[in-house]
Structure formats: C-alpha cells, structure tokens
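Submission checklist for the structure archive. All mandatory fields must be present; incomplete records are returned to the submitter.

[x] Identifier: DNA-binding protein
[x] Organism: Alsobacter soli
[x] Residue count: 93
[x] Sequence attached
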Amino acid sequence: MTASINPHDPDLIRLTEATEPTREEIDLDDLATAEEAADMLRISLRWLEKLRADNSGPACIKLGRRFYYPRSAVRAWATARLRRSKHFDLTAA
C-alpha cells in the first residue's frame, strides 16, 4: 500500500506558502532574469529550464516571452534544499 499526497493537507499548504512569494510580495525591482537566477544557483541555464519544465525549480513569473525569478524565491528554493552531510557542517562559521 502506497501513501498518497493530499494537496489539501494544511501542513503541505503552509510549507508551500512559506517558500513561494505571494502576488503582493513580488518586488518587480528584485526580479532576476533566468540567466541571473542560474548564475545565483551556479547551475546551467538549461538545467534551470529543465527544473522549470518539471515544476521543481524556484518560483518564477513569465512576462512577455521571458521568465523572471524573484531573488527571494531563488534563495528560499536553494535554502530548502540544504542538507546535512559529513562533508559539510552548517554550524561551522
């Protein structure tokens, strides 16, 4: 028996709302182009496009023919993917 994900689960909804900006929170002056977002994440533009197509990348907005990424959404997306490793200590300063 496999567990299914309930899209109406309040915990899942809160997690999604915490990592993606709302329409009122988007600062148009803080939008990064796709190229800038890829540079921020240190990934290729093609990989960022794949993430967007899979709906697994940072939140973005399409204006005209181009996609833009709120820098806060890019940072939140990257932060959500931090994980502990024996090779990387998050507590070291």
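[x] Structure attached
Curator remark: Residues 82 and 88 are 10 Å apart (CA to CA). The mean pLDDT is 79.
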